[in-house]
Structure formats: structure tokens, C-alpha cells
Amino acid sequence: MSTLTTSATAPATLDRAGSGVRTAVTAAALIGALSSAGYISGLFLLSAMTDAEAQRAPITIVECLLAGLAYAAVAVTLPGLAAVTRLPRWALSIAAAGCAFIAVQAWGFGTLIANLATVLPADTYANAGKNTFLMQLFLLPSMLIGLAGFVSLAVVGWRRKAIPRGASALLILAGLAALLGPFPPAGLLGGLGLAWTARSAKPPAAE
């Protein structure tokens, strides 16, 4: 009797665990996407401010910190989808690394960059943000890993028919957006694509 009970409860336990992973990834990814969208909208809504004033605005800081925390959560939980979907752990892990870079950059925007915008004169701050070779070199790892992570997950998910084509398209766009450097475009597209992936990815084939 105990064996039958154990075998009957095991699938239910796995289903609950799988649902928890999907919910965690979905919620964190959506928060990351909304926070990134808020930052992008601020470029227009706060256009009357200088770059320094916009960057140290409380709403901008909150958006960056939320995006950083959300993408840190995605980076931790995303590989867990390998146990409950057809997506391979290696592809999920590379995408998680890309999410970790987004988290670091977003947190840096909300803390370090906001602090520089506060303590530096406006013209000095504007010059510090110029797009130079060294700045591109600094952003290069996040750009390449973001591209590799999102695109590989999109391609593998599409080839295995594990995720919808729309989710794959969003992830590919997120990978391309990572090449822009700053986190918000990839944060927006990647968050939407990962949330869609987490909710709709097909479970492993029954043995």
C-alpha cells in the first residue's frame, strides 16, 4: 500500500514543483520587462530633464533596482525549467547567464550611475557616458552572452517544438537587442519572451 501511495503522490509533487518554477520565472521575467519598459518610457517622459537629472530621478532608480532584482531571480530560477520542459539545461543556463548580466547592469544603473549623476557636474557626467572603445569593451561580455543565450534558447526551443514561434521571435529580438549595450531593450524583449516561454513550454515527453 505504501508503494502505491508513494507512486501516486510523486507525479502530483512533481507537478506542483514544476508549476512553482514556471510561476517564479514568469513573475520575475514580467517584472523585469515592465521595469525595463518604464526606463525606456522615461527617456520620453523625462525628456525635459538633463541626462543626469533623469538618471537620478527616484522613479528611474526604482525601475533599475526592480529590473536588477527581477533578472537576478530569473537567472537563478530559469535553469529549473529543464526538469519540467523539453528545453535543455545548457541552453537555459546560457540564457540565465545573459539574465545575470542584465541584472548586474540594471542594478549598476540604479546605484553607481545614479550616484555619479548626483555627485558629478552635469557636463562631466555627460562626457563620462560617451560611447568609447573602452565602454564598448566593458559591455562586450554582456552583449555576446546575451546574444548567445537568448538566440540559442529560441532556436533550440523552436527546433524541439517546445515553445511557440512568437516566444522564439521575442527571444531572438532580445538577443539582437543585447548588442545595443544598455540593458532596457533586451530587458523588455527578453522578459516578455522568457515569461511566454515559462508559461507555454511543453513538458518532457512521457517515457
Q: N- to C-terminal separation?
A: 24 Å
How much β-strand is present in the residues?
under 5%
Q: What is the count of DSSP helices, taking H or I runs of 4+ residues?
A: 8
Number of separate structural domains: 1
Question: What gross morphology would you assign?
Answer: elongated
Decide which structural class fits the backbone.
mainly alpha
Order of helices and strands: HHHHHHHH
Query: Percent range for helical residues?
Result: over 70%
Could you tell me the radius of gyration in angstroms? Answer: 19 Å
Low-pLDDT residue intervals, each spanning 5 or more residues? 1-10
Number of beta-strand segments: 0
Largest sheet: none
- Average pLDDT value? 89
Primary descriptors:
mainly alpha, single chain, 207 residues, elongated, disordered N terminus
Tell me what the structure shows.
This protein is mainly alpha-helical. It has one domain (2-200). The protein is 80% helix and 0% strand. It contains eight helices and no strands. It has helices at 2-45, 51-55, 58-77, 89-119, 122-128, 133-159, 165-178, 183-200. Helix 1 (2-45) packs antiparallel against helix 8 (183-200), helix 4 runs antiparallel to helix 8 (183-200) and helix 6 runs antiparallel to helix 7 (165-178). Residues 1-10 have low confidence and may be disordered.
